[in-house]
Recover the amino acids of this structure.
């Protein structure tokens, strides 16, 4: 067992020659780096002001990463590795990661820096451009994703749409997941049509309570305050999220035992009428996976094994819906991100320019669906995918919010948000700012969709059945205004033919009344 060094000036082993950098989202205990103890290596895990300041983060997100980093450092030391874990107290003098690494190498006369392929473009660029006299730099694979980094360019082409369904099928075949003799189990690849049920009153009582943890992060919160780190969201001294392998595996087990049975069926459902309305049947494993505490293959294999042992209770529909998110969508958006960066970060195909309304930071809005999705995000640093896509995301799309501001909000507020996974979901899937690289049509919807998939509308200030009246649901007129103002871009899209036919069926008076209503709303977005 080795002690964790908490200062840069610590007395390292005289044999030390190599600094191995571990970023906050590279907490992969199974990485080949750790298979044997090497006295010539020191592992560096550091809290950095640059990582707290590039966007305004949710306080629980920062606490989760910092706590997980500390626990990973302790685990490595317990296995005998030489570890330097630096908090903001030690790294405060350094403006960025390169200056910190330079100081450590100079002080300890190290001649090699090794790092794992970063998942964010800005960090990859920073480390790729690192040049220290007498120090060699080497980049290693993170050994986390199923699709190797070098294979991304074989699966994706810059600025071109790649159909996720076909990518998903190729991944299923390549890794032999839910396959039988080169054919999908159950005779079909995708059970998405069976994954769109809403929760009835009789279903609400069966929703399990979420498994929560109680990790003491009071010292981290004090440290953030001491260093004047600006955060958003509700701060809690007891963090409910998993921050180590043991807790993450407990959460995975809990998902399999209590939530998988209805995950696929209700994965698009929303409700405000349950104490578990924010968690429902979702695994909430995304932070643990994105921080690499759990590997995607480990999660997939565990879920499939549990299903195979319980096929009389759990249907293939539930399992395939979950596997599609991990093996399909998660790997897909990573490929989209890397093949299109850095230009992807500035795409704004719909020329959206309006500022993000104030209630995205306060949840003080009369739109009940928006209030719940935002309040939940502020309280837990979490919202499930349909809330992100079809509530806050759809509203931002319809209102023409600047995708830069939407990106920053999503990247900051969610505990699982790292740019590689957040940006294609936000700028691509929800905002259509990439012009169709991710989605073949904009994910625009009126209040009817929200009413169909949830119960928010029942207690809302606005009436979901109205379009132009004072108390009409804002989603309705904003939807048709969006359709009308982007008609030149979308009226030839085969997936939107019926929408434009319905618009043309309206008489001109009705059309104009809807447009007028929407323009009033757009002029008063902060007051909805």
């Amino acid at each position: 067992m080795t002690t964790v060094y908490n200062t840069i000036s610590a007395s390292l082993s005289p044999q030390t020659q190599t600094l191995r950098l571990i970023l906050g989202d590279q907490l992969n205990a199974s990485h080949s780096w750790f298979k044997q103890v090497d006295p010539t290596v020191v592992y560096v895990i550091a809290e950095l002001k640059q990582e707290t300041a590039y966007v305004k983060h949710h306080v629980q997100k920062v606490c989760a990463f910092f706590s997980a980093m500390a626990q990973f450092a302790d685990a490595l030391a317990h296995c005998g590795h030489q570890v330097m874990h630096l908090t903001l107290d030690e790294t405060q003098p350094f403006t960025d990661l390169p200056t910190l690494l330079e100081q450590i190498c100079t002080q300890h006369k190290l001649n090699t820096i090794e790092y794992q392929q970063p998942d964010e473009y800005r960090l990859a660029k920073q480390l790729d451009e690192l040049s220290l006299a007498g120090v060699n730099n080497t980049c290693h694979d993170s050994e986390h994703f199923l699709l190797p980094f070098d294979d991304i360019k074989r699966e994706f082409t810059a600025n071109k749409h790649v159909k996720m369904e076909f990518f998903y099928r190729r991944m299923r075949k390549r890794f032999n997941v839910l396959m039988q003799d080169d054919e999908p189990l159950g005779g079909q690849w995708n059970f998405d049509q069976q994954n769109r049920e809403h929760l009835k009153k009789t279903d609400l009582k069966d929703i399990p309570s979420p498994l929560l943890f109680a990790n003491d992060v009071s010292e981290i919160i004090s440290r953030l305050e001491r260093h004047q780190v600006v955060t958003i969201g509700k701060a809690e001294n007891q963090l409910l999220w998993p921050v180590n392998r043991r807790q993450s595996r407990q959460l995975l087990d809990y998902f399999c035992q209590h939530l998988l049975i209805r995950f696929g069926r209700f994965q698009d459902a929303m409700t405000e009428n349950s104490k578990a309305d924010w968690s429902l049947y979702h695994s909430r494993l995304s932070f643990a996976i994105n921080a690499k505490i759990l590997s995607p293959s480990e999660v997939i294999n565990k879920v499939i094994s549990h299903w195979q042992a319980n096929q009389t209770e759990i249907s293939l529909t539930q399992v395939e819906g979950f596997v599609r998110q991990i093996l399909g969508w998660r790997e897909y958006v990573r490929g989209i991100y890397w093949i299109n960066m850095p230009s992807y970060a500035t795409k704004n195909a719909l020329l959206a320019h309006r500022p993000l309304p104030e209630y995205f930071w306060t949840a003080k809005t009369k739109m009940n669906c928006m209030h719940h999705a935002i309040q939940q995000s502020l309280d837990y640093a979490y919202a499930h995918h349909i809330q992100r896509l079809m509530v806050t995301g759809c509203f931002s799309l319809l209102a023409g919010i600047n995708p830069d501001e939407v990106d920053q909000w999503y990247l900051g507020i969610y505990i699982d948000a790292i740019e590689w996974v957040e940006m294609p979901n936000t700028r691509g899937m929800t905002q259509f700012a990439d012009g169709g690289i991710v989605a073949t049509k904009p994910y625009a919807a009126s209040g009817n969709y929200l009413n169909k998939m949830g119960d928010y509308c029942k207690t809302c200030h606005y009436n979901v059945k109205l379009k132009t009246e004072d108390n009409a649901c804002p989603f309705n007129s904003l939807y048709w205004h969006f359709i009308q103002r982007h008609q030149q871009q979308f009226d030839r899209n085969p997936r939107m033919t019926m929408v434009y036919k319905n618009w043309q069926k309206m008489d001109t008076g009705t059309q104009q009344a809807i447009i007028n209503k929407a323009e009033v709303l757009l002029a008063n977005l902060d007051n909805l």
Remarks:
- The two ends are 58 Å apart (CA to CA).
- The chain is about 45% helix and 5% strand.
- The chain has a mean pLDDT of 95.
- Residues 316-340 form the longest helix (25 residues).
